Amino acid sequence: MKEKLKNQFAVITGASQGLGRAFALELARRHYNVVLVSLPEQNLEQLSEWISKEYKVEAIYYETDFSVDSNIRLLSSWLNKNFNISILINNAGIGGTQSFEQAHIDYIDAIIQVNIKATVLLTHQLLTNLKRQPHSYILNVSSIAAFSPMGYKTVYPASKAFVHSFSRGLYAELKDTNVFVSVINPGAMATNKEITSRIERQGIFGKLTLLDPAKVARYSIGRLFKRDTVIMLNPLIWLLATVLPIWIKLPMMTNIVKREVLYENSVCNGY
Ligand SMILES: NC(=O)c1ccc[n+]([C@@H]2O[C@H](COP(=O)([O-])OP(=O)(O)OC[C@H]3O[C@@H](n4cnc5c(N)ncnc54)[C@H](OP(=O)(O)O)[C@@H]3O)[C@@H](O)[C@H]2O)c1
């Protein structure tokens, strides 16, 4: 196995923390060389050195900001010039809770750039490289939010619905080639302070459904190699999200998220 993967690399975006970091560790554990991609100044150098020592694989890093259009092209050509890529994990993604009207234009633009444009353009630019390898995989990170539009998040769930639809379409287009495409739709994961405290405020239901990023990464990579095209991590929530009619889930989700906005505003205002 080790010998077979010697000259092959897995590219993981958003790899410095959270789920992306967990993917990098899981793939290195499975003897894949990794290219970690993330924003500058996120200790990527230290992480790649540690991965390399711990798992005896090559771990390369590249710092870039996907919210700048030309950076995606620069990254793609650097990757194509230097590596044989057999796995691409489009994990980088941003979200948040804000009133659409009050959100800054740069915030909205960054969600579209990172979640949609980086995923699509990187995949497009690396496809020839992926096709050259004996067996290749693309794993896109969507979200359970893809199945439920909601006010006060608006652009984030729409971007994840895009990622889901894009992944399914690409799977169908490439299914008779050596490139296999899959998508995961996780629910809430304890990846940063903001998410963890938000989930804690949701009480027992939030805690029960909270996912561990290391377990998500391990399960997802296992399912990816078993050629599962849509990887579901919270079957119960997925069932609710897909079975509930839109006239129930849209106002219900919007009210839940609106309460969060009101809570955050009251905390900021010192109430
Ligand atoms: N956490 C959840 O509850 C949850 C639930 C469903 C889906 N997801 C999805 O899972 C993925 C990972 O989420 P996470 O919670 O692990 O997120 P996170 O901890 O907030 O990490 C997001 C990753 O995206 C990268 N990123 C953000 N803006 C970027 C930019 N402008 N250019 C390049 N990279 C950028 C970050 O890089 P830096 O490290 O450099 O900041 C970070 O590594 C995302 O696609 C997210 O939408 C998360």
Structure description:
With 271 residues, the protein is an alpha/beta fold. The chain has a single domain, classed as NAD(P)-binding Rossmann-like Domain (Rossmann fold, 3-Layer(aba) Sandwich), CATH 3.40.50.720. Helix content is 54%, strand content 14%. It has helices spanning 18-29, 44-55, 69-82, 105-132, 155-174, 193-201, 203-209, 213-225, 235-243, 246-268, and strands spanning 8-13, 33-38, 59-63, 84-90, 136-141, 179-184, 230-231. It has a seven-stranded parallel sheet, sandwiched between helices. Helix 2 links the parallel strand 2 (33-38) and strand 3. It is globular. The model has no long low-confidence stretch (mean pLDDT 92). Bound molecules: NADP nicotinamide-adenine-dinucleotide phosphate (NAP). NADP nicotinamide-adenine-dinucleotide phosphate is lined by residues 14, 16-20, 38-39, 42, 65-67, 91-95, 110, 114, 141, 143, 186, 188-189, 191-192, 195.
Quick structural gist:
The chain has helices at 18-29, 44-55, 69-82, 105-132, 155-174, 193-201, 203-209, 213-225, 235-243, 246-268; strands spanning 8-13, 33-38, 59-63, 84-90, 136-141, 179-184, 230-231.
